[in-house]
Design a protein that fits this description.
Elements (H helix, E strand, L loop, with lengths): L1 H14 L14 H11 L1 E5 L13 H4 L4 H4 L1 H5 L7 H10 L4 E7 L26 H12 L2 E7 L8 E2 L14 E2 L4 H19 L3 E5 L8 H14 L4 E2 L25 E6 L16 H13 L2 E7 L9 H17 L18 E6 L2 E6 L7 E5 L7 E4 L7 E5 L2 E5 L10 E6 L11 E3 L4 E2 L3 E6 L6 E5 L16 E3 L3 E9 L2 E2 L4 E7 L11 E3 L1 E7 L15 E5 L13 E11 L3 E10 L1 E6 L2 E6 L6 E9 L2 E11 L5 E8 L2 E5 L5 E4 L1
This protein binds ligand FHN.
Ligand FHN binds next to helix 1.
Amino acid sequence: MKKLLYLIAAASLILAPAVPCLSKDKGPNYEKRMAWWTKARFGMFIHWGIYSVPAHAEWYMNNGHVPRSKYELYAKEFDPTDFNADEWVRIAREAGMKYLVITSKHHDGFCMFNTKATKYNVVDATPWHKDPLKALSAACRKYGVRFCVYYSIMDWHSPDQGAYDPNPSHPTYNPTHFKPGKKQDYMKYMETQLKELITQYHPGVIWFDGGWMNGWTKRDGQEIYNYLRKLDPRIIVNNRAGVGDYETPEQEIPPNGIPGHDWETCMTINNDWGYDAADHDFKSPETLIRNLVDIVSKGGNYLLNVGPTSKGIIPKPEVDRLKAMGEWLRVNGNAIYGSGASPFAIKLPWGRCTSKRDKLFFEVFRWPTNGKLEVKGLGTLPTRAILLAGKKRLRVESNGPDMVINVPSEPPDRICSVIELDFNGEPVVYNPPQIESEYGIFMDSLFVTIKSPTPGVIVRYTTDGNPPNAECPEVTGQIPLNITTDIGAALFEGDKRVSGTSSRLFIKVNPLPPSTVSNLQSGLLYKYFTGVWDSIPDFSEMAPKLSGRISNVSLPPGNSKEHFGVEYTGYIKIPATGIYSFYLTSDDGSKLYVGDSLIVDNDYPHGATEKEGVVALGQGAHPVRVEYFQATGDDSLSLFIKGPALNKELIPDMWLLSPK
Ligand code: FHN
């Protein structure tokens, strides 16, 4: 249940007004201010608080529905006599971590630092009476690790914030809200504590969290951001107060990074942030090292978490993994620290690439069995190629559009072996052209645009999807299609193909014929079911609890919050023949059928997520069916449409009909 609630928590984070992609503070000092952080690439996250006493991780006060008065007693048991700040920082440094972010105050509101703003803090409220942030900030200065702090806006203990469900014997706190007239009091409390954190410990980063609580706005985030800028012009602030310097995806690696933004992925080593005595599901060193490489190859930082015990010990399985990462970084760190994203737009089949101005680093996960590492699209022969492990020089030869690096039969490192390529200046990388068209289907004819990411080179193409050769036609403008065609395109320098091949299939279709049905009235028919599912069931075999007519694809009135399903049937009246995009958004799962075709499959439990489907439809009424199920947590359902002379909008009620 804890996990589920945690997921809800995370889901509520997903569902909370998502923190928008930042409009990067492009102030003149931005690059300078971020320089140490973007160079660092790898940091330690530490979730440590009185929640380590019950040892059910940091959400225990909420997930265990622990009344404040009972939870406060854990402070009296918090006496981490084995805590050694120097040892923690040495573990971070030997792991190759260049900065450390520790929870100064998590959602539970307990302050792990010396603060005058409340007695609910580690110095005043525990038998230990010590300030761990003072010791850690000093140790960080001593060992050359940048000290940073996490601070939760949501505060389950604050007298200014009310619980989601204040049931005194079984409270649920998340998400809190500001009590009437108390927001400014809390903002003052926050500013007092942020000033203490900055003046007492001089952190490099303020890592906000918990901004999804009700009543917190982007304007509040901007106010706090401006306040911090005044306190310390060099301070870096993450995006979770609503305004900040970098993005913070969590427990995932964005497939293409976050272009145009600095970003940092934070992850646990097991499944929990705070210490959970029952969580032994630790990631392998291979996963952790490859995560670091993957993240840096996409231009991000890796903030990897440890959850110390109530006695002040970082669990050994976490220390062991960090040691393994440090050993790898001592050999290969030059490929990580100060490196940036791969210049290759295509996924490298054998691993990743990181880059510095006149260097490329190939991080090889899958070592070639034939001793030849092929690289497509590298347009400059390196002046030198070496294995970072052992510094062995490697021979590189050009093979048509590809480069081939001759490598030893065995990799120096089974997890990830790194090859450094040096160039005179920045190397040329030829990425395959982009084949652009709004849809992959068309009815009569279609004009396709092919764009080269590299200026001044020729693009040639085929219509059977194969790699083009020098005899193939050159792209001189849009390409007209009137039959199903599989376009293949690549870049050429003279007669030589210098890039990989992009391919895209365009299918000529006939619009689905409308139904001959008549005698329809507005609205869809719906059937409401109850049950516990983890995906959309077969409603045709069930007896509905309720049924009726509804004006649009939305949750029927009176639905329970959890464990229910709805089936909507009727017709969609298409005003003009054409190609239509349908956008189905739901929490949890949903599917859209037009006629007998499944157009959108957005099934399984998830937060509010949109999926798109495309179909050609003839003018007239088409049978439509939407299936939906809700497991637990938040729920939502909506259907948008885009078509000829129609921008994306909520499907108009008047388009939805059903038999009288
Ligand atoms: O709710 C917190 C969670 O406890 C943890 O602190 C993570 C770390 O980024 N942040 C929130 C969940 O997204």
